[in-house]
C-alpha cells in the first residue's frame, strides 16, 4: 500500500461525509431499482472493478438509508463514524491483519487493539489495571454472550465452594450438567430489570435458556443459587440503578456468589458527562459501575464514533475469561504481556477492530468525544421538551426531562394516529424514527446519536458552535387544518424535524 493510496482514500472519506441534504430514507423507487439490479446468477466472467464501482454507485448506494449521512435519521442507535474512524476501519480491512494472537515480533496489530481498549477505559474513567480482561467483539450482543458465559462459570463454581465438602467445578471443562451436579445447583438464574432482547439470546446460547431470566422490579432482593445480574433498558434509555444502589447489589452478589454483569451498550458514555446538576440523573445511573464483574458496551453505537461491527467487553476476571474462552484443550502460553484475543472471546480469526477506535480517539481526544455526548443529551432533551409541551404527544415513560439521556420515547395521544405514527413519520422521507411498543401500545423512539457528525467536517480546528444542518427544512409551507406537517426545531445550529398535528384529525 503506497502512501499515495492512503491519501486518496482519506480524500474520498472527506467527500463521503461532506454529502449534504441526504434524505433519511431512500425513495421506494430507488429501492425497487436496486433490488431489480441484483443479479440472480454469478457471472462466469466478472464485469471488472470499474463496472462494479459504477454498479454500486448507480444502483446500490442510492437505495441505502441515511444512517450515517442524514441529519434526520434517528433510528436504532447507529452512532456515527468520524473521518478518522472510517480511515482506521478501511486500513484494518486493507491491511487485513489477523489480530487473534499477540505476536510481538510479527505485527503490532494486537498492541493496537489493546491500546485502543485502554484508551476507551481512559475515555470513560475506568481503571485499566482493574479491567485487565478486555476484548473487542462484534457488538453488545457478542459481549453479553461473553459476560453471561463468565457469569455461568463463576456462579456455578461459587455454589460448589459452598458445598460440604467444597467443590470447584468448571462448566468450561465439565459441561453445564456435570458442573451443576458437582456444585449441587439445580438452576441458574439471571436476575435483571429490563433485560435487552440480546440477553435472552445470550441465555439461550450459553445453555441456560430464556426461562432462566427473571425480570425484577428495580430494587428486588437477590435469591440464593447461582445468579447473574444485569442492568439497563433500551426503549427509554433509562438506567437500571442509581447512586449507591450498585454498592448494595455488589454486596448481595458477594453474599450469594453471583456475578454482576452490566450491559452498558449505550449507557457507558454517561461516564463522560460532567458532574453537574444538569446531568445528575445520568451520572448517578452509571455511578459505581466499576464494581461490576463484567461490562458490555458498544463502540459502534455512541461510546466511540466508529462504524458498525465494534463491540466492547471488559472484565475484572481475566483468568476466568481465559478459562471459558480458551482456544485449545491445554493452555498455550501467551507471548509477551498482552493476552491473545483468541482466548478472550468467541472468535479466533478477527479483524483489527481496534484501529477505528484508536484512530477516532487519538484524532479528536476526550474533549471532543465528551462534547458529542453532551450535544446528544441536549438534542434529546430539546425534543423531549417539545413533546411534553405539545398537546398532541406524550413523553414516555414519564415527562421527566432530567432523566433523558439520548433516547426519546413518545406516542401520539390520538389512538388512531398513534397506530400509524411511526409509519407516517418515516414515509415523510424527512425523518426516520424507530417503532416500538410501550405498555402494550405502539410508540416512537428517537435516538439522538446523529447530529454531531457534520461538525467536525465544518471546521476541524474548532468544533463547537460550528455545526451546520445537513438538511434544511422549511416548516412545511402553508399549514392546513387536520394535516400532518413537519416543524423544525432548532438546537443551536442543529436541526431536527418533528411532526406536529394542526387542528383535529
Ligand atoms: C443495542 C443493545 C444491545 C445489542 O447490541 P448490538 O450491538 O446490536 O449487538 C444490547 N444491549 C443494549 C442495552 C443495547 O442497547
Automatic annotation (TrEMBL):
One of its GO terms (cellular component) is cytoplasm. SUPFAM superfamilies: PLP-dependent transferases (SSF53383). Transmembrane segments: none annotated. The modification N6-(pyridoxal phosphate)lysine is found at residue 301. It comes from the Eukaryota. It holds the Pfam family Pyridoxal_deC. Its cofactor is pyridoxal 5'-phosphate. The keyword Phosphoprotein does not apply. GO terms for molecular function: carboxy-lyase activity; pyridoxal phosphate binding. GO terms for biological process: carboxylic acid metabolic process. Keywords: Lyase, Pyridoxal phosphate. Belongs to the group II decarboxylase family. This is Tyrosine decarboxylase.
Amino acid at each position: 500500500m503506497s502512501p499515495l493510496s492512503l491519501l486518496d482514500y482519506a480524500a474520498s472519506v472527506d467527500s463521503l461525509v461532506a454529502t449534504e441534504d441526504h434524505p433519511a430514507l431512500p425513495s421506494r423507487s430507488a429501492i425497487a431499482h436496486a433490488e431489480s439490479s441484483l443479479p440472480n446468477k454469478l457471472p462466469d466472467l466478472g464485469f471488472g472493478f470499474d463496472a462494479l464501482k459504477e454498479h454500486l454507485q448507480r444502483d446500490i448506494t442510492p437505495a441505502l438509508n441515511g444512517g450515517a449521512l442524514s441529519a434526520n435519521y434517528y433510528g436504532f442507535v447507529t452512532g456515527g463514524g468520524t473521518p478518522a474512524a472510517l480511515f482506521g476501519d478501511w486500513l484494518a480491512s486493507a491491511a487485513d491483519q489477523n489480530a487473534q494472537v499477540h505476536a510481538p515480533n510479527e505485527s503490532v496489530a494486537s498492541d493496537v487493539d489493546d491500546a485502543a481498549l485502554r484508551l476507551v477505559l481512559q475515555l470513560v474513567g475506568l481503571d485499566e489495571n482493574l479491567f485487565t480482561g478486555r476484548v473487542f467483539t462484534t457488538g453488545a450482543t457478542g459481549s453479553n454472550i461473553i459476560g453471561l458465559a463468565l457469569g455461568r462459570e463463576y456462579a456455578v463454581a461459587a455454589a460448589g465452594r459452598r458445598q460440604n465438602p467444597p467443590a470447584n467445578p468448571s462448566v468450561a471443562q465439565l459441561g453445564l450438567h456435570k458442573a451443576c451436579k458437582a456444585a449441587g445447583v439445580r438452576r441458574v438464574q439471571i436476575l435483571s430489570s429490563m433485560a435487552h432482547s440480546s440477553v435472552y439470546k445470550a441465555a439461550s446460547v450459553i445453555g441456560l435458556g430464556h426461562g432462566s431470566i427473571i425480570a425484577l422490579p428495580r430494587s428486588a432482593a437477590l435469591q440464593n443459587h447461582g445468579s447473574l445480574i444485569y442492568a439497563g433498558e433500551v426503549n427509554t434509555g433509562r438506567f437500571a440503578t442509581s447512586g449507591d444502589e450498585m454498592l448494595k447489589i455488589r454486596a448481595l452478589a458477594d453474599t450469594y456468589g453471583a456475578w454482576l454483569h452490566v450491559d452498558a451498550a449505550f449507557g457507558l458514555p454517561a461516564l463522560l458527562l460532567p458532574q453537574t446538576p444538569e446531568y445528575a440523573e445520568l451520572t448517578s445511573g452509571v455511578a459505581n459501575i466499576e464494581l461490576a464483574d463484567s461490562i458490555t458496551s458498544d463502540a459502534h453505537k455512541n461510546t466511540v464514533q466508529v462504524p458498525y461491527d465494534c463491540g466492547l467487553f471488559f472484565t475484572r476476571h481475566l483468568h476466568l475469561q481465559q478459562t471459558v474462552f480458551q482456544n485449545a484443550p491445554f493452555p498455550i502460553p501467551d507471548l509477551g504481556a498482552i493476552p491473545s484475543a483468541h482466548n478472550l472471546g468467541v472468535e479466533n480469526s478477527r479483524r483489527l477492530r481496534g484501529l477505528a477506535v484508536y484512530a477516532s480517539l487519538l484524532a479528536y481526544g476526550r474533549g471532543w468525544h465528551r462534547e458529542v455526548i453532551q450535544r446528544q443529551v441536549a438534542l434529546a432533551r430539546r425534543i423531549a421538551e417539545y413533546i411534553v409541551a405539545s398537546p398532541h404527544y406524550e413523553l414516555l415513560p414519564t415527562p421527566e426531562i432530567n432523566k433523558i439521556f439520548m433516547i426519546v420515547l413518545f406516542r401520539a395521544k390520538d389512538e388512531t394516529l398513534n397506530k400509524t405514527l411511526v409509519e407516517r413519520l418515516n414515509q415523510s422521507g424527512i425523518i426516520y424514527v424507530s417503532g416500538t411498543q410501550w405498555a402494550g401500545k405502539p410508540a416512537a423512539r428517537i435516538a439522538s446519536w446523529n447530529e454531531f457528525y457534520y461538525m467536525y467536517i465544518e471546521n476541524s480546528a474548532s468544533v463547537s458552535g460550528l455545526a451546520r444542518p445537513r438538511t434544511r427544512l422549511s416548516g412545511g409551507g402553508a399549514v392546513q387544518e387536520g394535516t400532518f406537517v413537519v416543524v423544525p426545531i432548532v438546537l443551536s445550529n442543529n436541526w431536527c424535524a418533528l411532526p406536529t398535528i394542526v387542528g383535529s384529525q
